[in-house]
# Entry
Amino acid sequence: MIDRKLAPIFKGIDNINLLKPEHKELSNGCNIFYFNSGDQELVRIEWIFNNLHFDRTKPLLNMAVNTMLTEGTTQLSSSQIADKIDFYGAFLQVDYGFDHSQVTLYSLNKHLQYTLPVVQDILTASVFPDKELNTFIRNQQQKLQVNLQKNDVVARRLFNKAIYGNTIYGYNAEVDDYENLRREDMLVHFKQMYQPSNCIIVVSGKIEKQTIDLLTIVFGNNWENTGETANTIQSAIETATEHFYFNEKPEALQSAIRMGMPVFNRTHPDFPALQVLNTVLGGYFGSRLMANIREDKGYTYGIGSGLSSFKQTGAFFIATEVGADVCKAAVNEIEKEINILKTELISEEELDLVRNYMLGSLLGSLENVFSHADKFKNLYFSDLDYDYYERYTVTVKTITADQLLQLANKYFSYDRLYKVIVGKY
Amino acid sequence: MVKFNRFTLDNGLRVIVHEDSTTPMAVVNILYDVGSRDENPEQTGFAHLFEHLMFGGSVNIPVYDEPLQRVGGENNAFTSNDITNYYITLPSSNLETAFWLESDRMLSLAFSEKSLEVQRNVVIEEFKQRYLNQPYGDVWLRLRPMVYKQHPYRWDTIGKNIDHIENAKIDDVKAFFKQHYTPQNAIMVVGGDVSTERVKQLAEKWFGPIPPGEKYHRNLPQEPTQYEERRETVTAKVPLNDVYIAFQMESRLNKAFYPVELISDILSRGNSSRLYRSLVKEKHIFSEVHAYMTGNLDKGMFVCEGKPLKDIPVEVAEAAIWEELEKLKTTAVPEDELTKVKNKTESTMIFSEMSLLDKAMNLAYYELLGDADKLNHEIDKFLEVTPQQIQEEATKLFRKDNSSTLIYLAE
# Structure
């Protein structure tokens, strides 16, 4: 008979092996980093650009230019681009983020010779046709109207505005802003931003020599800088003095709660330790916020906390949607949990669990070659090297309850948190 | 190509092993052959509520999550109309912990009153968050009872209404467990950095002693073919009008599944798809428009959905969708366009092999469909589809008297 009450013996996680990229600099200044691994005959290629300086009078430019890259070039119409990509079973995505904007191509290797020239065309010769721009504006406005009806979206907007101010991080698009988009501005923006000296290419998948050769020709020899330097400096963030925001929705069944504050980004020596503290509080399913507010009280379907890391700054935040009638009670419980972190030592049992969970989670996040490339991007854009992940694992394995208590007192204060509630309170 | 080995324990538990040494991780995916279609019409939402209770402690292990997190693992689950699927990802060196946890909750739950009470509340909050407190969130609660009159697909997995969840009793929970959570009603897939031999040994050790339980014989009322146009209009607190047109379609195992899936791709996959190109980009009728299907084990739903632009009357929007559907019935799809959607299907399947968890879930699902190996031959079925079959299936599907139209009007 087996003893089912007894947990099987388990092993800790010792080694986490991260793949490092190979590197090639092209003659136009563009850098290629590539990760060759995997059995499937496919590849993911990302072209990543720093956003241009945020212009308050034309706040949508970074986003709009990126989103409309697939909407037409001097050679190809929007529908021709779509036809080519879809015909070869490829996926072409554009993604706008606060710091960077990117174009991503997923393609089978056998079709790269047909799909790569499409990307080259959109990166060198996009024209943002007026007809497509009008469609984009109309559709974005409608999408925004739907999103503005969602309490969690409204809470996130108010929160970002409060902690980042009138910057690229804090800006929230309004329906009218779209009306002010001009094709001429977009062309100027495009020309300055989408050039090889402002780009890195990250390739992951099964990579043969001819893949790199092909990339060298298409994005090295045949892609020139415009001569203008991309101004990618962003203004400093401006946090608001007001710390509490309540947006009342009298008919809400649930209230969205978002709390937090700016802290620092991944480059700060305390960042890994703060990640441990954050995990204890709200960073996994068994976290204190989940255990208390969902699993004990049943106030919510989910609650979590997190740390974000951007080029200029980072933030700590807690987010949830709770029953409108228990919103005050939930807020009180959040306050309690933050105060406990500052007054009581975390037990060895809980801390061990969190250590193992975090290491398992890091190991599990390296699912395939794409995830190794993602880890590299985190480092590259924070100007960190692979030592970071060693420091991270050492911190996770060795930080003490005392150190975490000190850390909580150094950085966490319920009164200093920005608090946003959308719904009923 | 996803390779695997397969064996069955004496108690009927089917086990599939997919060895993949490129990862240091293992996944354990357990599919129970029970979904919301197996619920009593007076106790809807039960399969999903039950999924929550599966994390509330089992007969020998008071809490489920903690021991798993302690060995570096993560887990989650989902419930659909057809199945309930649980999965664990953990470092492969700690594989046995997953067997210990999963076998104990297959053996028996703790059936704690406190857990039931809390999870009732959690699910009610989930109901509010996803279905009631979102614009258009209640669409499935409205559309399903229009498309289905007899079959239990007429309610959503969350349940018909909050009352059914509020009224759940511990005895109902016990009965549901006894009926559905047996080894012969489950399929387990173990994948990643594991060996078949080791999995066999662990499966015998932990799952072998579980009694087989009684076989559940599913006997659901089948949905009669629809021969009447159905329509409902609701005025709601939503920012924009919204048009839904749903059609009854054949079940997942019917050979019509393949051409119909390609029809949904022709209409709605990627920026070159017909609905997007014609109705969003060229005619400026919708800000967004989509077509998709549910792919259920019994008769499924094919759905077209779009939000018309402000100045477009809903009748015009609806007619524009129908015009595209009619084209599929009257004109053969060009070879190039058919090749395009086939290529996309093929590359999607290759890309999904990049994810260990996707592979494990797919193996379990295809085993439920009759044979895990079907996963590796699925693409051939798509490649065989002809323009003529597309036209035939479109003709069967897109009949006015097979449609259920739901219109949201913004207040």
Summary: Residues 130-147 of chain A form the longest helix (18 residues). Chain A touches chain B through 74 residues (CB under 8 Å). Chain A has two domains: 22-221, 244-423. The longest strand of chain A covers residues 300-309.
